[in-house]
Design goal:
The chain is mainly alpha-helical. It has helices spanning 3-17, 19-26, 28-31, 34-41, 60-73, 75-78, 94-97, 125-136, 147-158, 184-194, 196-199, 227-237, 248-259, and strands spanning 114-116, 121-123, 263-264, 297-298. The strands form two sheets. The protein has a two-stranded antiparallel sheet. Strands 3-4 form a two-stranded parallel sheet. The radius of gyration is 22 Å and the shape is globular.
Length: 319
Amino acid sequence: MHSGQWIAVGLLGALALAGCSVQEANRPDSVVPASQKTASRGWSADSWQAPMVDSTPDDQYEASVYRGLALLTHTQDSLRAYVGGNLNCTSCHLEEGRRANAAPLVGVFARYPRYMDRSGAVVPVEDRVNYCFTRSLAGSKLPPDSREMQDIVAYLAFISQGVPNGEHVRGEGMPKMPALVGDSARGQALFVDNCARCHANNGGGMGPVPALWGAKSFSIGASMARQERAASFIRHNMPFDRPGSLSNQQAYDVAAYITSMTRPDSPGKENDWPEGPVPNDVPYNTKGHKAFRPPRLLPRTTNAAAAIVNVPASVLRPQ
C-alpha cells in the first residue's frame, strides 16, 4: 500500500471514530443554538441601532467600554508609543465609529473571526485592530492581551450588541466605487479648493485634522492608500462640512493626488494577498501584482518588526 492509500485509510479511520460527533455537528438544530436562531429571525438591519455608551460607568465592564471609546478617539495621545502619525482611529472611523459609509465599527464584532483576503488567513478581531495600528496609524501592534486591547474590543462588542453572528449592518464598510481612474493634476486643484483649509496645503493636517501624506500620515499598507478606497471615503464623507458635494470623478482625482504623495512604508506588505487576486490599485508590489502608481516611501527606522502582525497559521497550508 503506497503512502497516499495509508493517508486515506487513516483519514477514514479518524472519521469513523468521530462519526457520532460529526453527525451531530451536521444536524441543523446543533449548528445554531435555538436562542440565536430566534435572534436571527427577528434581526433587521434597517431598524437596528447601536447602543450609546454610558459616560458615567456603573461597573467594570462599562468602564472598560468607555475607556475603549476614549482610546479610539484620542489614540495618538493615549497610546503615543503605538501611533506613528497624527491620526486617531476615529480619523477614519468617523463619529465614534458610527457613521455609515465611513468604515463604521458598529456591528464589526459580529463578523470576527473572519477570513481576510489580504492576510490569506482567518483572523481574530484583535488582529484586525492591530492592522489599523500598524498600517493606518503607521505605528506598532498592541499586545493582544493588554488592558488597552481588551478595552478597545469591549467597545467594539458593546456597539455591536444585538447583531447576530455573521450579519451585516447598514452602511457597513465603504461603498465600492465605479471603475474610474483619477488625475492627480486635477486632484491637486480640487484639494486646494476643498481640502487644504483643514488638512493644510502641505497635507500635514492642522490641530485634530489628520495628515494625508508625509511622515505623520497613514502608511502605504493602509486601505486608504489605495486610490479606489480613498475615493470612496472622499466621495461619501468629504469635505467634512459638505459631504457628497464632489462627484465620483472628482473624488477619484483628489484620491489620485493624495495617494501619489510620500508616506510611511509598511513592513511585510510584499506578503499581502498570498492567495490572490490582488486589487488593481494596490500601490506596492506583491505576489503576481505590479505596484499601481507607487508613491515615494519613508522607511520605518525604529522597531519595524512591531509594525508586522503575524498571520495566523492556516489549516490548509503547511507553515
